[in-house]
Write a structure and sequence with these properties.
Number of helices: 5
Strand order of the largest sheet: 1-8-11-10-9-12
CATH topology of one domain: Helix Hairpins
Shape: elongated
CATH superfamily of one domain: Helix hairpin bin
Helix content: 25-40%
CATH class of one domain: Mainly Alpha
Strand content: 25-35%
Largest sheet: 6 strands, antiparallel, barrel
Number of strands: 12
CATH architecture of one domain: Orthogonal Bundle
Length: 288
């Protein structure tokens, strides 16, 4: 009889523990719903940089892990023909002999017309000679304009040659770090990337949230980020993009945040956990 009573007491105790545990699980607070979501810290942009034209790689000016800036040359294609065409175009664009000759002809035609005009007023030349002087002046003036137009065309040819040579230089489209080199000097490239460059400031954080949190976030909201590589304090990120609809199959939606990384101390590619709970001010607003 005593053993039976002890068994009933133990059973009641276990039942009470189960009820308490189930009640705690079934009624989560808003803080726990907004806290502890898995996320991923990624580069803001990852660009596979290619060449505008096909050709043979002559030089690679940077290597993996090198930092580059927007517009910085990172590779050069062989450009012997383009350099020769540019030199020829520069020489032709700097030729002013024809213009100088046409100016001299125009000055002579103007003097001749004035002379004939004076003689005609004294009835010393015929009307035909007067008309010929006017026509010669018009012809000289037209010849000068044609020479000037020809020089303008040559200057446009020079600009075209410069642009063709510029196409043989591959430049970085962003500030960032070289992630990978896809080619080597001597290789022929057509439509394959030359290098992959990642923008590391700011960083991008992607997080997928359940449908029950939809509508609770807006652009500009703040969140605490706890990187996989432990830091003394959490980081403060800003909501940049919030999906406007749910994913039908998973019942989730995505949120993208930006994370300043001015001194490049935050490593991209690492996992993290994110909390949208109100901050208490003890956060690092950027990598310190």
């Amino acid at each position: 009889m005593t053993n039976k009573m002890n068994y009933l007491q133990i059973l009641k105790h276990r039942l009470c523990l189960i009820l308490i545990s189930s009640s705690l699980i079934s009624v989560p607070t808003q803080a726990t719903e907004l806290d502890g979501h898995e996320c991923l810290i990624e580069p803001m942009v990852t660009a596979k940089v290619g060449s505008q034209v096909q050709g043979v790689v002559d030089q690679l000016l940077v290597d993996r892990s090198d930092m580059v800036t927007t517009g910085q040359p990172i590779a050069i294609l062989k450009s012997t023909l383009e350099q020769a065409n540019l030199a020829q175009a520069e020489a032709r664009a700097n030729m002013h002999g024809e213009i100088n000759a046409r100016k001299a002809d125009l000055n002579l035609a103007q003097l001749n017309r004035e002379r004939i005009k004076t003689l005609y007023a004294k009835n010393l030349v015929s009307a035909q000679e007067r008309d010929e002087g006017v026509a010669q002046l018009q012809v000289a003036s037209a010849a000068l304009r044609q020479a000037q137009d020809n020089l303008l065309v040559l200057q446009h040819d020079l600009a075209r040659s410069q642009a063709l040579l510029e196409q043989r230089i591959v430049r970085s489209p962003i500030d960032g770090a070289v992630v990978e080199r896809h080619t080597f000097p001597g290789e022929f490239i057509y439509d394959a990337p030359v290098m992959t460059i990642a923008q590391l400031d700011p960083l991008r954080i992607e997080v997928v949230l359940p449908a029950k949190l939809f509508g609770q976030f807006n652009k500009g909201d703040k969140a605490l980020v706890y990187p996989e590589i432990i830091r003394d304090e959490p980081l403060l990120a800003t909501v940049h993009v919030v999906d406007r609809q749910l994913d039908t199959f998973s019942g989730t939606f995505g949120v993208r945040l930006t994370l300043p990384n001015t001194d490049l101390s935050i490593t991209s590619g690492q996992k993290c956990r994110i909390s949208f709970a109100p901050t208490d001010g003890k956060v690092a607003t950027h990598s310190e």
